[in-house]
Design goal:
- By secondary structure, the chain is of the alpha/beta class.
- It is 42% helix and 16% strand.
- The chain has an eight-stranded mixed sheet, with helices on both faces.
- The longest helix is centred in the middle third of the chain and has 32 residues.
């Protein structure tokens, strides 16, 4: 569906247009607020479903990249966005557009002191409320504290005379591991959000209340973080006893502990750092385990860097290669534990530093050279595996035989392809 032709009839509204919206602005099928990897995939799904899609963001560089289809390495995703831009069924700009449905996918900000700042989400909600009209569906598809959908969003809509469940439809959605969880503030809100995501994603849907959905999202991610911290403790105990942690994990898993995580520099998805902190903030006096887990998780990059410093003492001026800096399926550097480890190694000035990451075109670490995997394994005295990038496991094992290897993820325990 192309962007609808604008006529005087199509611009008539029962609610007056906010001042920042053009009087003859098109009404899109979908407006996505926040250009993040997940929301860009939603935009592409919308285009594929013949929807007209507006994408909104406050960052000019993100808008510029989207409007030239610079959306990552997935060829199908790039092609879909390119086609949508060419056919004028999708575009990105500043400010929320008039639309039938809104999806807020703006992420919070994690400050160095661990505080999760939800101001960007609140600002996005304000923009959507300004643009909202009767009949709209508004979905929060981002980590939020329980009560945000039913409280903050619904209350702001009520304040402008739009009653959730009657005039507008409000829900929260969480997509993870091939499943979609939908929670509306009323049953009809849940139905409307389920219909939208059924169009966008071919996934099983489970419904709940908005508060239950928000808390379940935090609970799942927090459990993953607790599991990851325990795995790193198990690795430390195994090393103290002179045991191979991967053999211990294999035995434990075969005995039924199938949810045991593997040791790692930190969360597999850097964005998972938000949820445990939001969970702990709900009730600080009763979340001691979560708060302790967060503290221990923050120490893991420093522990790995200390292990590298210890290995470096065997050399006069070692060459240290860090394999993989990004985090999550998109390889993001923001809040990446691997990036933190590599930065700590660089600041220690132990010797020459090399970095390997097939998703990068330049090194993000001052003084470190970006090289190929083969070059790194030939030159390095110490190799630190910080990512489960497939090419690292696929490389012939003899290439890893010369340098001292610190495998933080057990990548080399996998059989090379």
């Amino acid at each position: 569906m192309s962007v609808p032709k604008i006529t005087p009839e199509s611009t008539a509204r029962s609610h007056p247009s906010p001042p920042h919206l053009a009087a003859v602005q098109a009404v899109y099928d979908l407006c996505i607020v926040g250009l993040e990897p997940h929301s860009i995939r939603l935009a592409a799904r919308g285009v594929s479903a013949s929807m007209s899609v507006a994408c909104s963001d406050t960052r000019p560089e993100s808008i510029e990249r989207f409007n030239r289809a610079d959306v990552g390495d997935d060829a199908r995703l790039v092609d879909t966005i390119e086609d949508g831009l060419a056919e004028q069924t999708v575009r990105a700009f500043v400010g929320a557009a008039r639309a039938s449905a809104f999806v807020v996918s703006v992420l919070p900000v994690l400050h160095p002191d661990g505080y999760v700042d939800s101001t960007p989400i609140e600002d996005a909600i304000d923009a959507v409320v300004d643009a909202a009209e009767p009949g709209n569906l508004i979905v929060l598809d981002t980590p939020t504290a329980p009560g945000t959908t039913r409280g903050l969003l619904a209350e702001k809509l009520e304040a402008v005379g739009l009653h959730p469940g009657e005039d507008v439809f409000v829900a929260t959605v969480w997509v993870t591991n091939g499943r979609c969880f939908v929670g509306g503030v009323t049953p009809r809100c849940t139905e409307r959000a389920t219909e939208l995501y059924g169009t966008l994603l071919d996934l099983p849907v489970q419904t709940a209340t908005a508060d239950e959905c928000e808390l379940a999202r935090l609970a799942r991610r927090t459990h993953d973080e607790i599991n990851a911290v325990f795995a790193n403790e198990l690795a430390a105990v195994s090393k103290h006893l002179g045991l191979d942690v991967w053999s211990v994990l294999s035995l434990a898993r075969s005995a039924g502990s199938t949810t045991l995580a593997s040791p790692s520099p930190g969360p597999a998805d850097a964005n998972a750092r938000f949820e445990p902190r939001l969970f702990a903030a709900v009730c600080e006096h009763d979340t001691a385990l979560t708060r302790a887990t967060i503290s221990q998780g923050e120490l893991q990059p420093a522990r790995i860097a200390a292990e590298v410093r210890s290995a470096a003492r065997r050399f006069v001026s070692p060459t240290i290669a860090c394999l993989g800096l990004g985090s999550g399926p998109e390889g993001s550097l923001a809040h990446s534990p691997a990036m933190r480890v590599a930065s700590l190694i660089g600041r220690a000035e132990l010797g020459q530093q090399l970095v390997v990451d097939p998703r990068l075109s330049v090194s993000p670490i001052s003084g470190a050279r970006l090289v190929s995997l083969t070059e790194a394994l030939k030159q390095a005295d110490i190799v630190v595996v910080l990512s489960d990038e497939a090419s690292f496991a696929a490389a012939p094992r003899e290439l890893y035989s010369r340098p001292s290897v610190i495998d933080t993820l057990g990548v080399l325990t996998q059989a090379p392809s």
